[in-house]
Amino acid sequence: MNQQISESQNSFIENNLNLIHGRIKKACKKSGRNPEDVRLMLVTKTVPAEFIRFALESGEKLLGENVASELKSNYTTFHAEYNPEFHFIGFFGDDEMDTVLPYADCIQTIDRIDLAVEMNRKLQAMDMQKDILIQVNTSRKESHFGISPEHAIGLVLKAAKLPSINIKGLMTLGVFDTTEEKARSCFQLLKNLFDEIKMLAIPGVQMEILSMGMSDYLEAAIEEGSTMIRIGTAIFGERETPDSFYWNEK
Ligand SMILES: *Cc1c(COP(=O)(O)O)cnc(C)c1O
User: Fold this and answer.
1) Calpha distance 230→145 (Å, rounded)
2) CB of 19 within 8 A of CB of 26?
3) Do the beta carbons of residue 41 and residue 230 sit within 8 Å?
4) Which residue's alpha carbon is nearest to atom 6 within ligand 1?
5) 215 C-alpha to ligand 1 centroid (Å)
6) What angle do the packed helices 180-200 and 149-159 form, to 10 degrees?
7) What local confidence, expressed as pLDDT, does residue 250 receive?
8) Of 31, 58, 109, 170, which has the most beta carbons under 10 Å away?
């Protein structure tokens, strides 16, 4: 069945996109940054394909995928027509890496050396290179994914030796349901690490992408140096599936 998106759904998404782009521009202006240096990622978990199509028609270019099967199906649906960039932002369940690697332009959730080693091995077998970000647990909450800030540089140094992965930056979830002050301190921590790693000038490591900030504190994230804001709900509306489905703690 060819699902049609209704006028009101269209204008809902259009308004939301305008609002978010407006907030990004305003925050950039306030902190003296070029709005072109801050990219908007649309997080697509469970979002119907026709909503995503509408956003791509509006000129959006970057999709964030949490689940390997959704990445594959969105790639299959949209690659030829719109050629968006796909970033994987989920954790890896069993056997998901094989599905993710052919379709993701960048993988933002590398937080352990064994994951990096496994990825490098698979990439070598496919004769491919892949961009990755190191995910850092800036909130220090047990329940969050990411390597601890103390161990992040050690992981970068080890992963930098793997020839088929290219480290392009850092990503964090930060904290949700919190105060701006707490969110900001997560962003500052990630930015400081980013600058520190940049100064180390490690061969094979380019600190270009600082993926941090969601809808609640995107202004603070931009002021603290974010180059990539990740937004789902504030563009596409509430999801039916709870986030615990995607950030399933084992
Ligand atoms: C779901 C998700 C987002 C976006 O969250 P929303 O609340 O839908 O805006 C951003 N980053 C990651 C890693 C996510 O899993």
Assistant:
1) 16
2) no
3) yes
4) 232
5) 9
6) 30
7) 41
8) 170
Nearest ligand 1 atom to alpha carbon 243: 1
**Ligand 1 pocket, Cβ-based, cut-off 6 angstroms:** 43, 45, 66, 89, 173, 214-215, 230-234, 246
Q: How far from each other are the two terminal CA atoms of the chain, in whole angstroms?
A: 37
- Which residue puts its alpha carbon closest to atom 5 of ligand 1? 232
Residue 105, SS3 per DSSP = coil
| Closest ligand 1 atom, residue 233 Cα | 8
Closest CA to 207 of 161, 162, 153, 164: 153
Probe ligand 1: pick from 230, 243, 245, max atoms within 8 Å of CB?
Answer: 230
Q: Which residues of the chain have pLDDT under 50?
A: 1-2, 249-250
Closest CA to 106 of 202, 230, 242: 230
Where residue 220 falls (left for φ over 0; alpha for ψ -120 to 50; beta otherwise) is: alpha
